[in-house]
Amino acid sequence: MSPVNTRGKRASDWRNRLRHHPLSLLVSLITSLAALITVLVLGFLVGYILINGIPNLKPELFALHYTSENQSMLPAIINTCTMTLLSLLLAVPVGIGSSIFLVEYAKKGSRLVNLVRVTTETLSGIPSIVYGLFGMLFFNNTFKFGYSMLSGGLTLAIMILPLIMRTTEEALLCVPDMYREGSFGLGAGRLRTTMCIVLPTAVPGILSGIILAIGRIVGETAALMYTSGTVAKVAGLMDSGITLSLHMYKQASEGLYTEQAYATSVVLLALVLLINLCSSKLAARITKGR
Amino acid sequence: MNQFKGKRAGKGGWLETLMARLFLLTALVSILCVALICLFLFANGVPAMQEIGVFDFLLGTMWRPGNDIYGIFPMIIGSIYVTGGALLLGVPVALLTAIYLAFFCPKKVYRVLRPAVELLAGIPSVVYGFFGIVVLVPMVRAISEPFDGKGNSIATASILLAIMILPTIIGVVEPALRAVPRSYYEGALALGATHERSVYTAVVPAARSGILAGIVLGIGRAMGETMAVIMVAGNQPRMPKGIFQGIRTLTGNIVMEMGYASGLHREALIATGVVLFLFILLINLCFSVLKRRKDA
User: Does the CB of B194 have a partner CB in chain A at under 8 Å?
Assistant: First the structure.
C-alpha cells in the first residue's frame, strides 16, 4: 500500500471518529496533550540549561584550587567521587547482605522479615533534610566526627540503603528456583548456592540499583549541608568538603555566580544523563537475557 | 560417612553458620537505623517543644527567634499550600501522561517518552531550583506584577514542585494501570465502547488504589523537598497572604537557620524536623496501606 493511501485512510478515520465519538476523540487528544506537556517541560528545562550553560564551561572552572574569583568546580567534583565511593562502600555490602537474608535465608512472612520490610519502606520515604538533621545530631555531634566526609558518607549510606535493598531483592527474586535446586542437588550448601549461583545471576539487577544510588548521591544537597559541610577543598576522610550539588546551590543562591552555576548545572545534567544511559543499557541487557 | 554428607549439605559448616549470622546482622541494620533516627530526633526535638509549649509551638503564628518566640504554624500552612498547589497542577498532567504511556502510546514514542520520564526523575533538585530561579521566578513576577505579587512565591514553588512530582506519580501509576487484567479492557470493547471509553471507564477505575498510592507518594515528595523550594519560595516566616506572596516551608525553616542557630532556637529547628518527620510517617503509612490493598 502506498503511503498516500494510508494517510487518506487515516484522515477519514479521524473524520469518522469526530462524527460518531466526538467525546472519545476529545479525551484522547487531552491525554496526548498531557504527555506532550511532560515532554515539553523536560525538553525546555534541559535545553535551556544546556544552551545557556555550555558557553560558560570554561577551562579555568576546572582548576585544581577554588578561589572566590575563580569558582573552580574540580575540588567539588573530586569530593563528589569520594563521597560516592564512600557511601557505596558502606551501603552496598549491608544492602546486599540484608537482601540475601530476606530472600535466601529468612522464612517468608516471618515477623522479622515484615519488620525489616516496614523499616525499609519508612527509610525510603524520609526526606533528605531529616537525614541531614539526624546525621548532624548523630555523626557530627554524638560521635564527634564534626563536619566531615565520613559523616556525610554515613548519612548518605543510610539514605541509599533502602534503594539498594529493594533492587537487590527484586534481582534475587528473579533468579529461577531451578538454579537453586540444581545447586542443592549437586550437594552445595546454602552459602555456596547463594554466592556462586544466585548472586552472579543477579548481578545486572544489583548493578542497576547501584547506578540509581549513584544518581541520588550525586544529586543530594540537603542531607550533606550540615553533615559534610561546604568547604571548597579536596577533602580527606575527616575533612569537610563540598560536593558538586552543594557547590551549585551556593553559586545559585548567592546570585553572584549565575554564569558559573549554569556551567555546574551542565556538568550535573551530563552526569545524570550518563547514569540514566548506563541504567537503561543494563535494563535492556537484563530483559534480553531473560 | 554421614558426618561428611552433613557437612557437604551445609548444615554443619562453620562458615555457613557464620555467614548466616552475618546476613541476619546486616538485615538488622535498617531496623537499627530507623530506631536511631526516631530516638535522636525525638530526644533532641521534644524537650524544646515542651519548653515552648506544644500548642504555642504548633499553632503559634509568630516565628521570632530573636525574641524567643517560636511558632511554626506559618510553616505548616506554607508546606500544605505549596504541596496542595503542586498537586493541583501536577496530578492531572501526571495521571494523563501515565494513561497515555500505558494505553495510547505507539511503541516508537514509548521508547523516547519512558527514558524522558526517567531523566526527569534523575535531575537533582538543585538543578530544578536553579531552573526555577532563572526561568520560573521572572515568569511569575511578570504575570503577578498587576496584582502586586512577587516572583518568589507560593505559585512559583507550586509550579516547580508540580514538575518535580511528575515522574514520581507516573512511576507508580503506569505499572498500576498495566497490572489491570486485560479482560477488563476487552470486555468494555466487546460491549461496543470506544478505546478511550474502555480505558477511562473500565481500566482506570480498577487501578484506583494504585493511582491513589502514586498521588500519596507525590505528596510525600513535595512535602519533603527542600533545596528547590527554598530557592524559589521567598522563605518569609509569616502567614501566607496570597498565592503570589512568599512563604516558608517546614523544610526551608530548618535549612535557612540551622547554620547559625544555637540553644533553644536550634532545638526548635530540630523540633520542626520532628513535625516534618511525623507528617511524612503519616503519609508513608497511607502509601503502604494503599499499596497493600493493591496487592490484595
Answer: yes
Nearest to A234 by CA among A90, A83, A88, A89: A83
**pTM listed for this prediction:** 0.90
Q: What is the pLDDT of residues A129-183, one digit of tens each?
A: 999 999 999 999 999 999 999 999 999 999 999 999 999 999 999 999 999 999 9
Greatest Cα pair distance in chain A? 76
Q: Terminus-to-terminus CA distance in chain B, angstroms? A: 49
Q: Quote the CA–CA distance of B235 and B226 in Å, as a whole number.
A: 11
- Which of B83, B80, B78 lies closest to B218, judged by CA? B83
CA angle B119, A278, A156 (to 5 degrees): 75
B163–A191 C-beta distance less than 8 A? no
The domain defined by A62-289 folds into MetI-like fold (1.10.3720)
Do strands B63-64 and B69-70 pair parallel, antiparallel, or not at all (unpaired)? antiparallel
To the nearest 10°, report the CA torsion of A108, A162, A139, B45: -90
Asked whether the beta carbons of residue A219 and residue B126 sit closer than 8 angstroms, the reply is yes
Strand partners for B69: B64
Q: How far apart are CA B248 and CA B81, in angstroms?
A: 10
- How many distinct helices (H) and strands (E) make up chain B? 15, 2
**A with B: how many residue pairs have Cβ under 8 Å apart?**
259
What are the Cα distances from residue A173, in Å, to A92, A148, A262?
Answer: 18, 38, 43
ipTM of the complex: 0.89
- As a CATH number, domain B72-295 is 1.10.3720.10
3-state secondary structure of B63: strand
- Give A95 or B10, the one with higher predicted confidence: A95
Residue among B159, B227, B274 with most chain A CBs within 10 A, to mutate? B227
Q: In Å, how far are A24, B182, B183, B200, B202 from B206, measured between CA atoms? A: 19, 11, 12, 10, 7
**Cross-chain Cβ contact A226/B258 below 8 Å:** yes
How far apart are the C-alpha atoms of B230 and A112, rounded to whole Å? 40
**Cβ–Cβ < 8 Å for A244, B249:** no
| Shortest Cα distance, chain B CAs vs residue A279, angstroms | 10
Q: Which of B10, B99, B116 is facing A31, going by the closest CB pair?
A: B99
**What does the domain layout of chain B look like in residue ranges?**
2-52, 72-295
Q: Tell if the CB–CB gap between B196 and A27 is shorter than 8 Å.
A: yes
